[in-house]
User: Which sequence fits this backbone?
């Protein structure tokens, strides 16, 4: 009979632990990426009464509960943080703390410190790959992601330009059409390149001349001239795609920049960029591959885990990529605070790679993953555990009364 005290006491301890778990789940109701825990009860070994053949078995109560963290997918919510990241699917962000200990997290509130290190809200360093030059090699080992902060991006000298242009097939002989495009030298100084078209006396043919203002150079640059012919269907026939594009060589720039070689790319692969239809002569699109010097405006995280730097000239450059770890049995991870986990002796080795590969989930920029805690379920569990505690308290009271009556038999 007196074993009933310890049996009920084990139940009180187990249900107290269960209430603690519910309290922790509810406390993290709004923690991004938090995964709720469930309580698993198990009975203790039983004792056999009588002949010991198991006809009558009475247990010794309930063992210490086991908490199981449930790594289900949380809801994805849009956020205003440019560096916020939400994981959709399996996987974790890889972190290192101040002691270089590796940790893992599903929380995606990220920021950049004054040195350009990508950190979590609690200061852990996010692991991945930083750009070397303009390339990111994801085959290298992961390391701290360092993004440019307040940096000035060097100018890029233009080497090629193109126009998507239609020349009016109804134009009279000698009629002119011209279009201009801004290019940049090695110092980032802009120059205007003009291409002038003149309808030739030859059917379906236009002459062109590529020029640059004389004021930009110490000595006038000889214009590059040539002819373009079209088929009776308005498709450019010559020069064909196998011919080297016209090149304007610019020397003696007054800005002091290096000499320039500008190629006019008339073809987009095998497709010509110029047509001759009976429509007004017009440019529908143009581009060139140079850029002036520019200031960093902001840094943001894009879908897939790419870290993008936006500059004042409109360019967006990928300066890093966030790594993800896939762990086959995430339930074995041990919570280490700050919304992070560490490996336990039962954890499988993590496989680290790019998001969206090797069974890893995807990373969504400008979003966070909500906590998986279901408030209705937790309050229901709280009621059940409270009733379990009350019932076992009554067992102790009842056994106490029975023992008191047994003691009173001596009187």
Assistant:
């Amino acid at each position: 009979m007196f074993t009933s005290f310890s049996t009920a006491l084990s139940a009180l301890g187990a249900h107290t632990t269960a209430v603690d778990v519910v309290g922790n789940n509810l406390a993290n109701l709004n923690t991004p990426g938090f995964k709720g825990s469930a309580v698993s009860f198990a009975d203790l070994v039983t004792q056999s009464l009588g002949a010991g053949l198991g006809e009558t078995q009475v247990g010794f109560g309930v063992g210490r509960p086991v908490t199981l963290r449930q790594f289900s997918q949380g809801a994805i919510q849009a956020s205003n943080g440019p560096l916020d990241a939400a994981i959709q699917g399996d996987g974790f962000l890889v972190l290192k703390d101040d002691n270089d200990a590796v940790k893992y997290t599903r929380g995606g509130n990220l920021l950049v410190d004054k040195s350009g290190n990508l950190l979590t809200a609690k200061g852990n360093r996010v692991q991945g790959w930083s750009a070397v030059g303009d390339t990111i090699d994801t085959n290298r080992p992961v390391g701290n992601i360092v993004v440019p902060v307040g940096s000035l991006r060097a100018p890029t000298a233009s080497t090629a330009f193109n126009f998507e242009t239609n020349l009016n097939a109804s134009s009279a002989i000698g009629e002119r059409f011209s279009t201009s495009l801004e290019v940049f030298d090695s110092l980032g100084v802009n120059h205007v390149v003009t291409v002038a078209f003149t309808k030739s006396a030859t059917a379906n043919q236009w002459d062109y001349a590529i020029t640059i203002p004389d004021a930009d150079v110490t000595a006038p640059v000889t214009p590059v001239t040539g002819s373009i012919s079209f088929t009776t269907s308005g498709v450019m026939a010559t020069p064909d795609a196998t011919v080297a594009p016209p090149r304007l060589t610019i020397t003696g720039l007054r800005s002091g920049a290096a000499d320039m070689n500008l190629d006019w790319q008339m073809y987009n692969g095998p497709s010509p960029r110029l047509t001759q239809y009976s429509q007004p002569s017009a440019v529908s699109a143009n581009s060139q591959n140079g850029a002036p010097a520019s200031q960093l405006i902001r840094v943001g995280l894009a879908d897939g885990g790419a870290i993008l730097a936006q500059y004042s000239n409109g360019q967006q450059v990928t300066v890093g990529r966030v790594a993800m770890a896939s762990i086959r049995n995430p339930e074995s991870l041990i919570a280490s605070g700050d919304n992070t986990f560490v490996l336990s002796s039962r954890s499988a080795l993590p496989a680290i790679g790019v998001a969206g590969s090797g069974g890893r989930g995807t990373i969504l920029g400008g979003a966070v993953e909500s906590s998986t805690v279901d408030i209705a379920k937790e309050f229901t569990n709280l009621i059940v555990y409270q009733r379990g505690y009350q019932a076992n308290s009554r067992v102790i009271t009842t056994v106490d009364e029975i023992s008191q009556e047994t003691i009173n038999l001596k009187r």
